[in-house]
Write a structure and sequence with these properties.
- The protein is an all-alpha fold.
- Helices cover 78% and strands 0% of the residues.
- It contains 20 helices and no strands.
- It has helices at residues 2-16, 20-36, 45-52, 61-84, 86-105, 110-138, 142-173, 178-181, 183-197, 211-234, 239-259, 269-273, 275-305, 310-316, 318-335, 342-359, 368-394, 403-438, 446-476, 490-493.
- Helix 4 (61-84) packs antiparallel against helix 10 (211-234), helix 16 (342-359) packs antiparallel against helix 19 (446-476) and helix 18 (403-438) packs antiparallel against helix 19.
- The chain starts with a helix and ends with a helix.
């Protein structure tokens, strides 16, 4: 009898969508484009700064404008996917993202580039939740779901590192502008694949867009991240910095208050009341804070301190990318069906934290193979173990009408963590470096040593944040292994249109 049910389940999974694995390729391609765009311009930033005459204080907005718009509008993008339908929203996001990328590549001034990057973030906020929603509703068989989320988690974790590699190659052999132009052919290919391979149900007409919620949530995040950025030149006790933090906190409190009363809330609070889901959101946000900090500091360390070329800098992250893919597809994807998610997430965060702690020993004369490579491998393996169960657990068992906003919340946690991590850790590194140099005047090698000291201080804080992520995963994520949990319900039986 059980064999018969197994056979029927397999047959149903196979008959649901014969092109679902090719559809996964399309979804993964779009997700890779969105994730790597958060870092692809990192290595190109010095060239873009010289070409467009950006100041040192303003150059960070090339990265932050994207991540802020992306993270701040993701929840609204998730509701748009629920309202309009996931496939349609997916295609609109791809087309808009390609157009914004072309605009940024053709930028003639810093303002035009900042605006294009923010516009990229807006369309990424539409694209990312629809992609994850399509993945959630396409793969409902537990075993296939584990494999699909293994691929997705690998891309989510390694996409940022891949962006550094691609950015280095394009910058050195073409021009920094191709770090943006490259999205146009990728998006065109994904649009063609989506039209031919992806299927979806119609949107939910009863879903309404919560514009006040979007304004409050996005405004609060912008104020807080801007406050972190201004803390370095002005100081932590400056009235403007304190005012930005206070305004951000008030806006976010108002956001939560409004979500409890809005007729069509942007983020239904019942999604956060599930402890497993809330634990996954917090784990993701804290993990990415540390990860983005590492990318920022190691990029400058390799290029400025060790004098690596852009290509060599990008390739230096390749072992980390391989470790993320291995941890996600070969370990997490194989074990998640049999073990509780936290038994993957907690060890993953411990491995990642240990990798960061090793980097706190960096000096101006550290070697790549002896000190940096082992750290990157540990961090990559830990992130690979963590990302896949976070995505799979956060989106498991959600009602179809809430799949878009739930998927958006996962991505929001990722982008908000990246924005806060970049601003906060960069401020910690800069202030620590300045204090180090001020305490050692008239020493020839003080500046370089001070810069590295600042990096190690910030990386030490990143390691502490990783450990906090592991603690939260261990305490909040109590879901059982899918093998022993309830069978999937509504998404399996709903027809595909």
């Amino acid at each position: 009898m059980s064999l018969g049910r197994t056979g029927e389940s397999r047959a149903a999974a196979q008959g649901a969508d014969p092109h679902r694995w090719w559809g996964l390729v399309v979804i993964a391609l779009a997700q890779l484009m969105v994730v790597l765009d958060a870092t692809i311009v990192n290595i190109a930033l010095p060239s873009a700064q010289r070409a467009l005459h950006m100041s040192d204080g303003n150059r960070q907005w090339v990265i932050t404008a994207y991540t802020l718009a992306f993270g701040g509008l993701l929840l609204l993008g998730g509701r748009v996917a629920d309202l309009m339908g996931r496939k349609r929203t997916f295609v609109i996001g791809l087309v808009g993202f390609a157009a914004a990328s072309a605009l940024g590549g053709a930028a003639t001034g810093s303002g035009m580039l900042f605006g294009a990057r923010a516009l990229q973030g807006v369309f990424a906020a539409v694209l990312a939740p629809s992609a994850l929603s399509l993945l959630t509703t396409t793969f409902t068989d537990p075993r296939e779901r584990g494999k699909a989320f293994g691929v997705y988690g690998a891309l989510a974790g390694s996409g940022s590192a891949i962006g550094l590699i691609v950015g280095g190659v394009l910058t050195e052999y073409l021009t920094w502008r191709w770090c943006l132009y490259v999205n146009v052919p990728i998006a065109a290919l994904a649009v063609f694949g989506a039209s031919a391979l992806l299927h979806d149900r119609p949107g939910h007409d009863d879903v309404r867009l919560d514009v006040p919620g979007a304004v409050l949530g996005c405004g609060g995040l912008v104020a807080i991240v801007y406050g972190f950025g201004e803390a370095e030149p002005r100081g932590w006790t400056d009235p403007l910095v304190l005012g930005l933090f206070a305004a951000g906190a008030l806006l976010l409190v108002a956001f939560v208050w409004w979500q409890a009363r809005a007729p069509s809330p942007l983020l239904p609070l019942h999604i956060l009341r599930d402890r497993n889901r809330a634990g996954c959101f917090l784990t993701m946000m804290l993990a990415v804070i540390g990860m983005f900090g590492l990318f920022l500091f190691m990029t400058y360390y390799l290029q400025v301190i060790l004098r690596y070329s852009p290509v060599r800098t990008g390739l230096a992250f390749l072992p980390m990318t391989a470790a993320i893919v291995t941890g996600s597809t070969q370990i997490s994807a194989r074990l998640l069906h049999h073990v509780p998610p936290r038994l993957l997430m907690v060890p993953g965060m411990l491995l990642a934290a240990s990798g960061l702690l090793l980097l706190t020993r960096l000096t101006v004369r550290s070697s790549y193979t002896g000190e940096i490579l082992p750290s990157l491998l540990l961090l990559g393996l830990g992130m690979g173990l963590t990302f896949m169960p976070v995505f799979a657990t956060a989106t498991a068992g959600i009602a179809p009408r809430d799949s878009g906003v739930t998927s958006a919340t996962v991505n929001t946690a990722q982008q908000v963590g990246g924005s806060i991590g970049t601003a906060l850790l960069n401020t910690l590194a800069t202030t620590s470096a300045a204090a180090y140099v001020a305490a050692r005047p008239h020493r020839p090698a003080t500046v370089a040593a001070g810069v590295v000291h600042g990096y190690t201080v910030a990386i030490g804080w990143a390691a502490a944040i990783m450990l906090l992520a592991g603690l939260i995963a261990g305490l909040l994520v109590t879901a059982r292994a899918p093998k022993y949990g309830p069978r999937p319900k509504a998404p399996v039986s709903e027809p595909v249109v």
